[in-house]
């Protein structure tokens, strides 16, 4: 990781909670989406509205996998969440960009709407920022404390 990113930042817990909630939202969205879209074509370009977003079975299945990875990485912590959140933060922003480009075409395989693109940007920002403030390192005992005890 880059050496200029903060280590043991005092807002680390806040960002970790936000990334955990984002992963949980994506996971729940995927589960509800699979239930609501059963019987549809896997990559239908016209999806159903679930929790404010449009989805099809393919996008719902991917959301379950991505949500589970982000949620578990955030719960585990130990700098695993930093790498996972950095990767998925970038993926969410890029997914929003590409989905916006293919919105009203036959290439809209995930049945995205403009709302999906906006939420993708927001989740990418939250998850990406949490990776910037989530690094931890054990601190060595201070030398002053060792001399005072001796």
Key features?
2 strands; transmembrane; two-stranded antiparallel ribbon; 62% helix; transmembrane helix; DUF4383 domain-containing protein; elongated; mainly alpha; 5 helices; 150 residues; membrane
Would you spell out the secondary-structure blueprint of this structure?
Elements: H1 12-36, E1 48-50, E2 53-55, H2 57-76, H3 80-101, H4 114-132, H5 143-149
Antiparallel strand pairs: 1-2
Termini separation: 37 Å
| Helix fraction bin | 55-70%
Question: How much of the sequence is in beta strands?
Answer: under 5%
Oligomer: single chain
User: Given the helix and strand composition, which structural class is it?
Assistant: mainly alpha
Identify the overall geometry: elongated
For the CA atoms, what is the radius of gyration?
Answer: 19 Å
The biggest sheet amounts to:
2 strands, antiparallel
Average pLDDT score: 83
Task: Return residue spans where pLDDT drops below 50 for at least 5 consecutive residues.
Answer: none
Number of domains: 1
Strand order of the largest sheet: 1-2
Keywords: Membrane, Transmembrane, Transmembrane helix
Transmembrane segments: 14-38, 58-76, 83-103, 109-133
Protein name: DUF4383 domain-containing protein
